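Can anyone check this?
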Amino acid sequence: MRKTSMILLAAALPMAVQAANTEFKFGGYVKYDAMMTKYSDAELGAGSATSVFYIPAAVPVKANDAEVESTSFDSGVKNSRFNFKTTTSLDNGEKVVSFIELDFFTGEGDERISNSSGSRLRHAFFKYGNYTFGHTWTTLMNPAHLPESVDFVGVSDGAVFARQAMVRYTNGPLQIALENPETTVANTAATGADSTSGANNVSDDSTLPDMIVRYNIKADNADFMVAGIARQFAYTNPTNTDGKEVDESVMRFGLTASGKVQLGKDDLKFSIAKGHLGRYTGIGQSNDATLTDKGDLVGNSVLAAYVGYRHFWTDSVRSTLAYSMFRADNHSDTHDTEAEADAVNESSKSIRANVMWSPAPKMTFGVEASKATLKKESGLEGDLKRLHFTAKYAF
């Protein structure tokens, strides 16, 4: 017994020394969501992520001119999350801050019995001096500029939204980052087994990281950010329609700006993004590039924007009205068949209004009504109408 105690004490001593210079915190929230959704043109596929939160590209559209109107009820707690943070004071006077956060989006439990789901990594990074290393929000976005919504994102059409691995340097209002690259390609040139007309063909063949520069601007009642990105689109495919090997890469660019203006207790939030931003906008609604039948890789330009106004009725009750839109130039002249055009998203838009009530500082109940429309390159459209309730407690 004594031997076991000594072993435990020896193991605990290094932890105790470390703990003397380290502050530990944990947090997160439990969030229950329930939603009734009406789809105008088709049934939603089983296990679709849009049954958890609004994803524009997942709105079903009619197939073969056969309209199938459907309504569904979904509920769950997948948006709940848990995080752990440490702050360590070093002998040189510097501090190291680490942060890890999980939610529960992955895995589909059996809805007859357990309704379980697996954990998913949201953030894992540490900060030392002016540098951030790890996996977190892309430098292209400021999450504080997203309007308050019952939905997980809400303004999904117009939002720049991504988390990924990076190295980021921060010096006052200036941020410079090298982030993980990824290219999504609409391949209209493949033949044989690679013929996936209109489909997404993900390529990670980029030889350069995504390079982002951001500048933050603060005023008495407002804060803004502007950011630019330089990206290398790359795609390698065995053959195109001419039987020639494809190995293409191009450099493309994009700009984004967002902000928050405080209007007394109310606030106005907005964002606009334009250029070759592809996967960064609309929750991956558009391909980054298109491979033509000549084997040329051309970038797809997008325009994405949102605006949201929040009004406080009382100290604990407030409402947000938000509008969001997305439009992509997918080089429609490269889509030779209707099937190809049916598979490519041209635009989407959504509008939502909610009422949020916080009877206690860390407890919120909310209800939100929303309507969204997705339009394909071929002209097909699908609508979504949703009534969404949430109950959230943060700790």
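Reply from J.R.: I decoded it. The radius of gyration is 23 Å.
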